[in-house]
C-alpha cells in the first residue's frame, strides 16, 4: 500500500461520522458534517496529486479511488433522500451510472484513470452535496437544487462518454467489413 492509497482508504473513515451527523438537524451538526465531507473530498485531490508527484500511480489506486469516491457521494445522498432534500429517482440515475461503469470496467484488462468529464462529474457532485448538507438560508434552495440536477446531468454525460468506443471510426470500419 502506497501513501496515496492509504489516503484514499482513510476517506472511508469519515463516512460513518458524516452519516451519523446528518441525522442531527442542528446547524452546528450540519456544519461539522460539511467539514467532514469537504475534508474527505479534498483527500481525493491529495491522493491523486501525491500519486503523480511520488510516481506511485498503481492499479490498486485506479480501482480504489473511484470506488471510495462513489461511496463518499452515494452515502450522504441516500441520507438526503430520507431527509427529503433530493428525489430518489435523481440519486437512482447517479447510482445506475456508477453501477454501469463499474460493471463495464470489470471486463477491461487495464484500468484507466478518470477523464475530464469524470472529474467534472465528481466536482459537481461534491459541490451539490456540500450545498445540500450546509445549513443555508431558504434563498439557497433553488441554487442548491440546480447544482444537484447539474451533477446528475454531468454524471450521465460522463457515463455516456466513458462507454463510447475509443475510436468510433475504427469500429464503424470493423462493422462494415464484417457485413
Key attributes of the depicted protein:
mainly alpha; 0% strand; disordered C terminus; 179 residues
User: Helical proportion?
Assistant: over 70%
- The mean pLDDT is 86
Distance between the termini: 49 Å
Largest β sheet strand count, sense and barrel closure: none
Spatial extent as radius of gyration: 18 Å
User: Helices and strands: which structural class?
Assistant: mainly alpha
Strand-residue proportion: under 5%
Describe the structure.
This protein is mostly helical and 179 residues long. The C terminus is likely disordered. The chain is 79% helix and 0% strand. It is globular and about 45 Å long. It is built from 7 helices and no strands. It starts with a helix and ends with a helix.
Secondary structure topology:
Layout lengths: L2 H20 L4 H27 L5 H24 L5 H19 L9 H18 L7 H23 L4 H11 L1
Please summarize what this structure is.
The chain is mainly α and 179 residues long. It is built from 7 helices and no strands.
